[in-house]
Amino acid sequence: MLSDNPILNIDFIEDGNIKQDNELENSKQKESTLKTEVKETSQLTKVSSNEKWTVKEVEEQKAKETDYFKQLVEKADKEIEEIFHKPEELKNFFAFATTLQNNYSSRNLMLIHQQFPGATIVKSFTEWKREDLSVKKGEKGIKIIRPLVDEYVVINNNGENQKVFKKNWTRDIWQKIKNNEIEVYEDLLGFKPANVFDIAQTNLPKEEYPEDYFNDFIDEDTARLKFNELVLSELKSFVKEKNIELKPKASLGQARGLTATNDLGQKVIYLNEHNSTKENIVTLLHEYAHIKFNHSYKTTERAECEYQAEMTAWALAKTLKVDTTENSYKYIGRWLQTSNVVDKRKWMDETISTLKVIRQELNQHILKSIETRMERKKELEEKEEKKHKQVLSLKQ
Fold first, then answer.
1. Disordered: where is this region (predicted)?
2. How far apart are CA 139 and CA 249, in angstroms?
3. Would 24 be classed as within a structural domain?
4. Each residue of 132-166: pLDDT tens digit?
């Protein structure tokens, strides 16, 4: 899906079994943080060269950040208003909100949901540092809003109540506060943007994550592990033949994977490093289906995209003797319930057509792989036979 962030040029597609209902144009954590912190000086070093920022450029850069953040907040507010009229999305949003182990306002929850749908535990850079953890290099902050609050007390001055803010508190006021003689109030002055980071963006080893972190991941099929590993190996080889780069990624939270376009225009499929082998199979097939369909949430209803990709992934996995029925049908069912399209025959027709194309591609790849293995086996057998003959000749 194409990102609607004017600063970026990245094409995202969501994972095959993501739990929450989210917009992938806002995925990959939205990458909304500008790569340069603009400081209040007349000249700053530019990231790309040795030139200096002019005062005008500093102000323009600040304006870009402010405008983008304003749009992000407005969109969050709009989605909060609309979500109450969409029961399935409301349920999914609450599922996300309860999964996230932080006490945030609905606006901040929606902001996090938009930028990092797989988030579970988020903290500021400083808060992670206090726990002796570091944010991994290159990770982009998740934008939220922090309230600007000033404390005040109410003092009676000649029969009139007056607010006295903290900076103007006298020793007498401080003493009365200490003695609980007067009450301290808070005045909301406004909001400012702030960055937080998910636990998956830190250097904490996954072995040390909270015990309930992996509850929603598909369990490994240990009985067929070797077979599944062979299938996954073939799928990885197949995808690479299509000039699609494949990378593991830790900072996806509970999202199973995503597809992006790199600077060279090449598609890159990221798989969550916490996925089981079976999960990687269906997610890889799901992401490849998105690419074959050329899905974009800007031109095609999201439910249609996810239905087609997951139905294709499920059917192909079944062909490969990997059963993902339970998880795939739950995922497909959620998206069908969110769609207002009455006649879904078009979805089915396109799915069947694309499914046949991908299945033919896979068959050709697997046949080629079998031929290569048979040739290698034949070469090894010939070498063994030759070696055996040499041993026999020496004995004679």
1. 377-396
2. 12
3. no
4. 999 999 899 999 988 888 899 998 888 888 899 99
Amino acid letter, residue 55:
V
Contact 136, 148 (CB under 8 A): no
CB atoms inside a 10 Å sphere around CB 202: 21
Cα(396)–Cα(161) distance, rounded to whole angstroms? Answer: 117
- Locate the DSSP E strands across 216-374: 245-249, 257-261, 267-272
- H helix or E strand, kind and range, residue 157: strand 142-157
Helix (H, G, I), strand (E, B) or coil at 169: coil
For residue 25, give both structure tokens: 């144009």
Coil, strand or helix: which one is 306?
helix
- CA–CA separation, 354 and 360 (whole Å): 10
The helix/strand/coil state of 130 is helix
Check if the beta carbon of residue 112 is closer than 8 Å to that of residue 121. Answer: no
- Domain assignment present for residue 239? The answer is yes
Q: What does the alpha-carbon distance between residue 54 and residue 183 come to, in Å, rounded to a whole number? A: 47
Q: What's the structural domain count of the chain?
A: 1
Task: Dihedral sign for Cα 106, 108, 109, 111, please.
Answer: positive
Question: How does pLDDT run across 20-60, given as a tens digit for each residue?
Answer: 333 333 333 333 332 333 333 233 334 333 455 666 666 77
Q: Is residue 123 part of a domain?
A: no
Indicate the SS3 state at residue 85.
coil
Question: pLDDT tens-digit profile of 315-365?
Answer: 888 888 888 777 776 777 777 777 776 666 678 778 888 888 898 898 888
CA 291 vs CA 69, 329, 350: distances in Å: 30, 21, 14
d(CA 368, CA 352): 24
Is 144 within a domain?
no
Contact 267, 13 (CB under 8 A): no
Region for residue 7 given its phi and psi (left: phi exceeds 0; alpha: psi -120 to 50; beta: otherwise): alpha
Q: What angle, 0 to 180 degrees and rounded to 10, lies between the N-to-C axes of helices 277-293 and 345-395? A: 120
Structural domain that includes position 352? 222-372
Close Cβ partners of 131 (under 8 Å, ≥ 6 residues apart): 123
Closest by CA to 256, choosing from 27, 20, 15, 24, is 15
The closest of 237, 244, 278 to 370, measured between CA atoms, is 237
Question: Biggest alpha carbon distance in the chain?
Answer: 124
Cβ atoms 147, 179 nearer than 8 A? no
